[in-house]
Amino acid sequence: MLGIRTFDPRSGGNMAYKALTHPLAAEKLALLADSLKYAGPVAIYDPHDMVDTVMALLPVPVTVAAVHTHDSLKVGQMRVGQPLRPVVDMGQGVARTIWALDFNHAAMESRLSGLLPAGGVLHTLGSVCLPGHMLSVGHNYLDRLNFATNLAFFRDTAALSTRLVTANYWARYGARAVRLWLRLFDQDGQVLRTWDYDVPGDGQAIIIDSADIRRRFNLPEFTGQLFIHAQGIAGHDVVKYALETRGKGTNASLSVTHDANAWPANRYANLPAPAEGEDVVLWVQNSHALPIPSGSMTLNRMGQDVHMPILPELAPYQTMAVHMRDILPGLSWPEQIEFRAGGHVVRSRYEITQHNRTRIAHLNVQRADLQPDAGITRLDPRFFGRGYLLPFPVPDPARYRTLLLPSPMAESLTTLPVRVDCFDVEGAAGPSRFMGCLPRDHGTVLDVSALATGPGHGELLYDFRDGGQADGWLHALIRYEDRQTGHASETSFGSHIFNTIMTYRGEPQSYVGAPPGLSTRLFLTAAGSEPFSFCRLIYPVSATWHARSDTSLYLHAADGTQIGHEKIAIPMSGSREIWPHRIFGLSTLARAGAGAYVIIRDTTCRLFGYHGRMAEGEGRFSVDHMFGF
Question: Distance between CA 166 and CA 206 in Å, rounded?
């Protein structure tokens, strides 16, 4: 396991990790580590408690004589195998090379000037800093806005291409000169190209198309990853996007997936075992400038401790396809697989090939910090009604199968006591099914299309009639199959408490602001030709809220200009399908241009949406949950 500290749900992200793993910073860190390697024993001053993360990210070993702190309460605690010593004793050790783990060299010179040993040489992390023009907040290097970074699975081959789509949402927070610094790595981890993408307009569409990039830079075929660094931003430090995968020529593949989680984790879930006739590939993409040692990542049947290693070593930034039948040949759908990634990769994609078509979806972070919460079993129904809900679309059961597979998403969880409630599009309650108190290693899938009486949506929720645990992080994989064409798509997401004025442990959540988060701002692409974009917009309520939503649909042209506005009202517990080309018209979308999008806004309630693409004449489609900002 890579000994790094990345993201903590309570304290937020470790920005030092982001600062050190930026590809440009990683190159400079390698040079610094190489010079320290030949400097003899090094005494480290660790003012920000980052020594474990820094040492884990060094490409070459550095001999550490001592680690010092100025915090008297931390003296004696262990770091990198050594007890912390008081910084006032730094000059008494054998080391003549001092390394202060801070990005401000001048500040460290001033602070340590009287403590350096005779003839001592001071190094800091100042030499690995990004140039000033790449920073959004120049006066505070570790400001979260300076490291709005992410990675995307990016591919362009003879059969498939990818397209990243988002918008300049930072402008609404006051950003005026947004730009993206982009670096494309090939399958071997080699840099194919580095370039800038200027996004000056308020709300301007952002489209990065693999086929366009390949033509523009005269690149060979590639299957790799795209590093994204948003600069000149304000208000929001997360790089959000939708990633489309399309087949070329006669290839009928079509997928739309959500952005990657920018923080590496130790474990991931929501990886299905292959069904008959399927090839399930896990795309393992090294997120760091360090090799991943052979066997340091493993796969196992969810809930079972027999771990099968991924044997090849991965080079820095390398992309590798791992076939589940090669690693776990005895497993099959609906069994689930756990990916123990050891902090080496951000949220991976998996790709399923069936009938010469592929579909792509993402894994989810399995939480290490969560423990079962007995308070969820005692939630007051006056305040929270049915409590935590995971809403998901149920398209016309006569045409589509909707298969739901509950997934444990915390390392500590051993049971999943769940049921599914169905609702029609007008919000009328329909059939309900208790799935049981499922064990962690269950392989139970529910055909919701056989349960529902018509199109609408379902909600997965806790049901403790047979006991069981809950942690508020209830997840499921939902698979959709077209009965006529055989095309399939899938998505996964987690539960929330929806639309209650009382709060419980940060729920209901909001995309912006503190709970209760009773508002909606969602992003939907608006395509004027096939495959058309759409979303299924759901108004879930844990207890009871407004009888109908007050929802606005704002159509924006590719330059960010608003050119259309329509209102809809969704009944409580109901849902609607939103097709921009039907609501605004094909001529209006043509005027909006490539990159047009819709912002779905509601200040009265929180809606939940799933976006997708559909080629109506061909029957191919995709579904994934939407994002907001």
Answer: 5
Residue 307 has φ and ψ, to the nearest 5°, of: -105, 130
Q: CA-based Rg of the chain, rounded to a whole angstrom? A: 25
User: Which residues touch 311 (CB under 8 Å, ≥6 apart)?
Assistant: 294, 295
Cβ atoms of 467 and 367 closer than 8 Å:
no
Q: Which amino acid is at 205?
A: A
Confidence (pLDDT) at 628: 83
In this structure, how many other beta carbons lie within 10 angstroms of the beta carbon of residue 140? 14
**Which amino acid belongs to residue 486?**
G
What pLDDT is recorded for position 11?
A: 62
Annotate 206-247 with three-state secondary structure: EEEEHHHHHHHHCCCCEEEEEEEEEECCCCCCCCCCEEEEEE
Q: 3-state class of 351 per DSSP?
A: strand
pLDDT band at 511 (very low <50, low <70, confident <90, very high): low
CA atoms within 13 A on the CB side of 352: 24
Tokens of 24: 């440009």
Distance CA(623)–CA(611), nearest Å, equals 6
pTM higher than 0.85 for the full model?
Answer: yes
CA-to-CA separations, 78 to 5, 50, 62, 94, 216, in angstroms, rounded:
16, 13, 18, 20, 52
Mean pLDDT of 431-442: 98
Handedness of CA 233, 238, 242, 243 (dihedral sign): positive
Query: 3-state class of 195 per DSSP?
Result: strand
- Cα–Cα distances in angstroms (integers) from residue 425 to residues 338, 457, 480, 535, 569, in the given order: 35, 7, 18, 14, 12
Contact 13, 146 (CB under 8 A): no
Report which of 416, 414, 415, 412 is spatially closest to residue 404, judged by C-alpha positions: 416
Q: Using an 8 Å Cβ cutoff, are 177 and 201 in contact?
A: no
Q: Strand ranges (DSSP E) for 106-159?
A: 121-123, 148-156
